[in-house]
Amino acid sequence: MDIKTGFFFLFSAVLLFAAYRVVTARNPVHAVLYLMLAFSQASAVWLLLKAEFLAITLVLVYLGAVMVLFLFVVMMLDIKIDQLRQGFWKHLPLAATLGAIVVLEMAAVLLSGFRVSDEPALVQVVGQPVVEVDNAKDLGVLLYTEYVYPIQVAAVILLVAMIAAIALTLRARKDSKAIDPAIQVRVRATDRLQVVKVAPTRAAEPAAATEENKA
């Protein structure tokens, strides 16, 4: 067994352990952390398979953005674990059915086998040195040449979704203490200060009269 195979078994074992702990962890924060560990091990396996683009995409998108957001949301929410476990047995048949379907689909894929492809070969042009094929570079060239219009459409859709999310979250709230600058500029001094007439205070009683009243 060479060192590449050893790293593959190491990353796979940690990945399986992290995936198991994601399901069995009682604390939601611990489950999110184990899921981040699982994603990191999956990216390492893809690096061993020479899929650099998928590996770096998994790290940047999921570990760098999505999982950090999930972690902050889970930590900020006051999740009642006892309330979540109340309907466990009621939803167990449906969950078991869906789990069995997933297992059967994965077994069908594994038993059917995979198409094994050769490693990228070295390209040699006449009169030039041998150049190794870079799949990330080739994928980038392919995306921005033949598939440039689908990439632009996807970018526009993501931009519209981002603007819609910002517009939905910035609605006026009743408990907001924000002040409109236009109203603040047009305000007058009489609107800020109001003079109220107060009745004069009563004079204090003499000390002698106070002692007589006590006696």
Concise description?
The chain is an all-alpha fold.
Walk me through what this model shows.
The chain is mainly α. Among the domains are: 1-78, NADH-ubiquinone/plastoquinone oxidoreductase chain 6, subunit NuoJ (Four Helix Bundle (Hemerythrin (Met), subunit A), Up-down Bundle); 126-170, no CATH class. 67% of the residues lie in helices and 3% in strands. The protein contains 10 helices and 2 strands. The chain has helices at 3-24, 28-48, 52-76, 81-84, 88-112, 135-143, 148-169, 181-185, 189-192, 207-214; strands spanning 122-124, 130-132. A two-stranded antiparallel sheet has the order 1-2. A hairpin with a 5-residue loop joins strand 1 (122-124) and strand 2 (130-132). Helix 1 runs antiparallel to helix 2 (28-48) and helix 2 (28-48) packs antiparallel against helix 3 (52-76). The chain is elongated. It starts with a helix and ends with a helix. The relative contact order is 0.05.
Key traits:
215 residues; mainly alpha; Four Helix Bundle (Hemerythrin (Met), subunit A); two-stranded antiparallel ribbon; 2 strands; 67% helix; 3% strand; elongated
State the fourth-level CATH superfamily of the domain at 1-78. NADH-ubiquinone/plastoquinone oxidoreductase chain 6, subunit NuoJ
Largest sheet: 2 strands, antiparallel
Low-confidence stretches: none
Number of beta-strand segments: 2
- The rough form would be described as elongated
- At CATH level 3, the topology of the domain at 1-78 is Four Helix Bundle (Hemerythrin (Met), subunit A)
Average pLDDT figure? 78
Q: Total number of helical segments?
A: 10
Q: Rounded to an integer, what's the Rg over CA atoms?
A: 34 Å
Tell me the distance between the termini: 107 Å
Strand order of the largest sheet: 1-2
What is the annotated CATH architecture of the domain at 1-78? Up-down Bundle
Helix content: 55-70%
Structural class: mainly alpha
The proportion of strand residues reads under 5%
Order of helices and strands: HHHHHEEHHHHH
Q: Which CATH top level class of the domain at 1-78 fits?
A: Mainly Alpha
